[in-house]
Hints:
Distance between the termini: 42 Å
Shape: globular
CATH architecture: 3-Layer(aba) Sandwich
Helix content: 40-55%
Number of helices: 8
Radius of gyration: 19 Å
CATH topology: Undecaprenyl pyrophosphate synthetase
Strand content: 5-15%
Number of strands: 6
Structural class: alpha/beta
Order of helices and strands: EHHHEHEHEHHEEH
CATH superfamily: Decaprenyl diphosphate synthase-like
Amino acid sequence: MxxxxxxxxxxxxxxxxxxxxxxxxxxxxxxxxxxxxxxxxFKRLRExxxxxxxxxxxxxxxxxxxxxxxxxxxxxxxxxxxYLEEYFAKEIDxxxxxxxxxxxxxxxxxxRPTSRQACIxxxxxxxxxxxxxxxxxxxxxxxxxxxxxxxxxxxxxxxxKVALEDINEAxxxxxxxxxxxxxxxxxxxxxxxxxxxxxxxxxxxYAEFVFTPVKWPDFNRKAFIDCLKEFQGRNRRYGGLKNE
Length: 244
């Protein structure tokens, strides 16, 4: 058994967001159907959850299914929903035991009934937990999130529930799916692609981006620590001057 790497995270990290990319390519390289790559991907979550707990990350966001993913073959979508339901059924006791609160960002009304109910049940089961938040982005799109918030605020303004001068960034953020969550500090995308793919566009405004070539089914604690090391070496200026 290899020795567990020791690493001390000295920089504050409240919210880490993951784009779990490379599942299909991982499977293809092994001569397997794409959906088995997604199945393997779910197996990585426990280790990453434990690593986030180890480094005192308060919020984890996972891009599980985007609004654009409906364009994929139906059998692949069906397998993804199967794995989602199986995962919640298998892991809900673990989540609850370590104080994870599950939150869903996205419009789950389009999901098939059994998948939608699995999400509702997981959120209900863990709603009072406070140790860590797992934000699962399902049928989520960053642009859709922003448009949805804009429409809700427009309705409130039309109904005279809010004055124009009271609409600011904080007010707008409270109408996003991620209401109450801190902005993303670190956004990690696996498999080497270097784009956001419509993911948490507002919330990633000042995030540090780390793009790793490791495909998600191979993304483990060591790979995560490599990303944390890169994050720790960054100077977050938020538009100010670099600390000399």
